[in-house]
Amino acid sequence: MDQMTSHFATGHKHNFSAGPCILPTTVFQQAAQAVLNFNDSGLSILEISHRSKDFVAVMDEVRALSLSLLGLEGKGYQAIFLHGGASLEFLRVPYNMMKLNGKAAYLDTGTWANNALKEAKAFGETVVVASSKADNYTHIPKDFTVPADADYFHCTSNNTIFGTQMKSFPTTDIPVVCDMSSDIFSRQLDFSAFDLIYAGAQKNMGPAGTTLIVVKEDVLGKTGRAIPPMMDYKVHIDKESMYNTPAVFAVYTSLLTLRWLQEMGGIAAIEKQNEAKAALIYAEIDRNPLFRGTTAVADRSTMNATFLLQDESAHQALFDSLWKGAGIVGLNGHRSVGGYRASMYNALPIESVQTLVDAMQLLEQRA
Ligand SMILES: *Cc1c(COP(=O)(O)O)cnc(C)c1O
After folding, report:
1. 3-class DSSP assignment, residue 105
2. What is the rounded distance in angstroms from the CA atom of residue 82 to the CA atom of residue 101?
């Protein structure tokens, strides 16, 4: 059975949720099997020791595969899987990167960027190089300078809530840190332009519970700051992501998703699918007179498409009944934007996007 058939023939919903996200059907099946009997070990993935040979192999493979999918193997980078969500990396980043009496530069493109900035403020001076807050984050600021004397520059590649995505990144000599939680592994970028990338698994890679951190080792260890071991990337790298018990199931399921991605041709292949899905939904948002997009066209996210009804009071009840009736879930916009948000992560089949477009066209006929 191909992925689409098996997803929807079994009553699986068209899941447009912003996170946790839909995963490939084969991943759900393999993960379910591993809960019952992992690798024919007679043990569940939920009960095996994280120090067992089989799980150490999982951790080794997922770390290596993450680097190879990003084109970063052999380039001085390390990949680790930690707990605490992307939100804990907001804090771990300044711990590991901001010098005592140093400063850090942040680009403010939305709620998550702002949350990252708030954590850094506890460590030292922060500079906001640009912000689109005054426009409710409907676009990505373009003309800004990154101060050459900052310890690092932090940005958010995809703004999950506002539906914008950075299409280019500033060139600077200082280390670049990027929160890629909601578009990691979705498009080709020169990942070697980044010194530290982090991403919560639950947007595009796996279930909630683990975060991927990819870091160029030579940017670490320069702060002069005492770092508690749990906060110290070097400790987690030295312990091969096993300083404490890792999120065994979340890490294993992330590995299954990354294997699936590799088998289909890696980021280059999924990028084409993601572009096709985004083109389909945005074409309908632009064509259908009952809808409008919420963001600057040039900055539209391929992952999270945000849009509004032109006339909510007239059409909301009917539209909501149409998409819900079509088996769609997770389409309501974030409260800070309103309207709708179609999150189209890697595993969402284009058939789901077509189902949404059909519902939008049905509304136009019936309204
Ligand atoms: C969801 C999200 C976060 C927060 O992730 P948690 O794992 O819940 O801490 C941070 N950044 C971005 C871009 C996100 O989409």
Report:
1. strand
2. 27
Q: Which of 151, 183, 203, 323 is catalytic?
A: 203
User: What type of residue sits at position 297?
Assistant: V
Vertex 70, ends 65 and 76: CA angle to 5°? 85
CB within 8 Å of 190: residues ≥ 6 apart: none
Residue 20 preceded by cis peptide, ω within 30? yes
% of the chain beyond a pLDDT of 70: 98
Q: Which atom of ligand 1 is nearest to the CA of 201?
A: 7
Which atom of ligand 1 has the smallest separation from the CA of 90?
A: 10
What is the rounded CA–CA span in Å between residue 220 and residue 196?
A: 10
Q: What's the CA gap between 142 and 145, in Å, rounded?
A: 9
pLDDT digits (tens, 9 = 90+) for 263-288: 999 999 999 999 999 999 999 999 99
CA of 218 to the centre of ligand 1 (A): 26
Q: Tell me the longest C-alpha to C-alpha distance in the chain.
A: 65
203 catalytically annotated: yes
Q: At what angle do helices 266-287 and 248-263 cross, to 10 degrees?
A: 90
Burial class (CB in 10 A: 0-12, 13-18, 19+), 332: middle
* Known catalytic residue at 112: yes
**CB-ligand 1 contact for 85 (6 Å cutoff):** yes
Question: What local confidence, expressed as pLDDT, does residue 8 receive?
Answer: 74
**Residue among 123, 78, 87, 88 at smallest CA distance from 104:** 123
Output Rg (C-alpha) for the chain, integer angstroms: 21
| CB atoms closer than 10 angstroms to residue 72 | 19
pLDDT in tens, 131-178: 999 999 999 999 999 999 999 999 999 999 999 999 999 999 999 999
Q: What mean pLDDT comes out for the span 85-110?
A: 97
pLDDT of amino acid 197: 98
For 270, the 3-state DSSP assignment is helix
DSSP count for the chain of H helices, then E strands: 10, 14
- Rounded CA-CA distance 106/110 in Å is 11
pLDDT of residue 1: 42
CA separation, residue 346 to residues 19, 214, 273, 308 (Å)? 12, 20, 8, 24
